[in-house]
Specification:
With about 200 residues, this protein is mainly α. It contains 6 helices and no strands.
Length: about 200
Amino acid sequence: MSDTSTTAPDPEPFRVPDGDLDDLASTLAKTMTEVRQHGVILDRLGSEPASAPPQPGDGIPAAAAADSAQEKGPASMFILALGGEAYDVELAALSTWVNYLFLPVYGREISTTRPWCAQWHEHPEAVARLHALWLAWQQFTDAEAGLSGPSTWHRDHLDHTLAHLRAPDGPFGACATSPIRPNHRVLATPAPEQMGLAA
């Protein structure tokens, strides 16, 4: 018996020219950033309850069902538009960013002229402003934002947000600044009937 099987020779190793390695590293970094952003989006989508658009057999004409699906459009990513578990998931992700990146880098000293509240997540205005800041950070630190993206984020988003959040009359204005005697108080907002009278 003769051995008729042929073994294929091992393929030649693929070598990337040294000049292309920087481009390869840049492409890899961009791809990893996109994968992380897709993961955040998938987490958000997975936490929202699935709602099927109306079907023609549900007693709604086909044209009305199509119009309803088009009017709905993409859901807002802004935290104030979320509810229930979706809000909790988004707040947890925001808290990670605030506690491990934002505060260590931009927290600065707390004083009566620059207040901060450790329970910031209980101040609706603070949550809204920090979430908007975080969304902008995700956009402007992405490789597609270009080299000036982080500078734009600082100038157009961070400085403005910090000025409002840490102002003496901002959302933390009623919270104590002493770490020895912490005091947390959410300021009252105008009642809806009072707002209606002013209009």
